[in-house]
Amino acid sequence: HVQLVESGGGLVQPGGSLRLSCAASGDIFAIYDMYWYRQAPGKQRELIATITSGGSTKYADSVKGRFTTSRDNAKNTTYLQMNSLKSEDTAVYLCMADLAPEGDYVEYEIWGEGTQVTVSS
Predict the structure, then answer these.
(1) How deeply is 24 buried, as exposed, middle or buried, from its count of CB atoms within 10 A (0-12, 13-18, 19+)?
(2) Residues contacting residue 56 through CB under 8 Å, at least 6 positions apart
(3) pLDDT for residue 37
(4) Could you point out which of 57, 113, 114, 120 has its C-alpha 20 to 30 Å from the C-alpha of 2?
(5) What's the chain's average pLDDT?
(6) What is the pLDDT of residues 32-72, one digit of tens each?
(7) Closest CA to 49 of 25, 16, 82, 74
(8) Are 48 and 58 in contact (CB under 8 A)?
């Protein structure tokens, strides 16, 4: 059973920082691209960051220059460092991974359940 678990969310003041983690567990053959999404109340889910297995990254314009994604392949974990946070960054943050389970070798999209980030004074 493969799963993703996010952590690191919470309440932060505008201008502050948070670091989110997303760890994949279970019998995994390979993890390919990993993604960070967010969803604010009443809004569509937004793709904000992508990191390939080789470490190449891509960001949405809304977070470019403030957020940085990275990954530790040995730990099957991706991170999202969020700086200069604004009230409009308030959302549930979710990670998703393209991965192949051990013994299956078919690529699946696996989602975490999300972690709440609230930016407020």
Answers:
(1) buried
(2) none
(3) 98
(4) 57
(5) 96
(6) 999 999 999 999 999 999 999 999 999 999 999 999 999 99
(7) 82
(8) no
Q: CA-CA distance, 26 to 30, in Å (whole number)?
A: 11
Both tokens assigned to 23 = 């760890």
Residue 10: C-alpha distances to residues 4, 59, 95 (Å) = 18, 22, 16
C-alpha span between 51 and 39 (Å, rounded): 19
First and final CA of the chain: distance in angstroms?
40
Residue 88 has pLDDT above 90, yes or no: yes
Measured CA to CA, the distance from residue 15 to residue 23 in angstroms comes to: 26
Q: What is the DSSP string of the chain?
A: --EEEEE--EEE-TT--EEEEEEEESSEEEEEEEEEEEE-TTS--EEEEEE-TT--EEE-TTTTTTEEEEEEGGGTEEEEEE-S--GGG-EEEEEEEEEEETTT---EEEE---EEEEE--
Contacts of 38 (CB under 8 A, 6+ apart): 45, 46, 48, 89, 91, 92, 93, 94, 117
